[in-house]
Amino acid sequence: MKSKKDNIAEYILYLWQMEDYLRAFPDQAGATPELSELNEMMHREGIMESGHLQLAANALDEMEELHSRLLDEDAMYRAAIMRLKPSLNLLKAKTDRPTMSDIEACLLLLYQIMLLHLQKREITPETASVQEQATKLLKFLSGTYRNIDISE
Fold this sequence. Notes:
globular, mainly alpha
């Protein structure tokens, strides 16, 4: 399984992908010990139809906590999120959860783009630009997460 400490954003996206995979291909639940374990967790948590594993929710909470700290402490980070805000607000408005956090919206954007690539659909230049900004932001967050103790 992806390591949360190595790259927390990739870890969350990986969990979301495995959730969707197990929902689409339930017969593959026992294909590997990892898939079996994730499938059992999904059953226990009652998210076989929709929703996310508590593992993913906890990791997202940790990212949110770090995001809040960086907003207070890092002017460059604050400027980066402000540049992204209009695009994230547009994305949020198109979902059934328009009040989701900016970090969740960044992750959702990257996840949806991954799905578009799998469907061999084209990405507009505007979307590619927002993707690049969101990727840089999440990469910075993940790198900072890797290098600090979140409980500080």
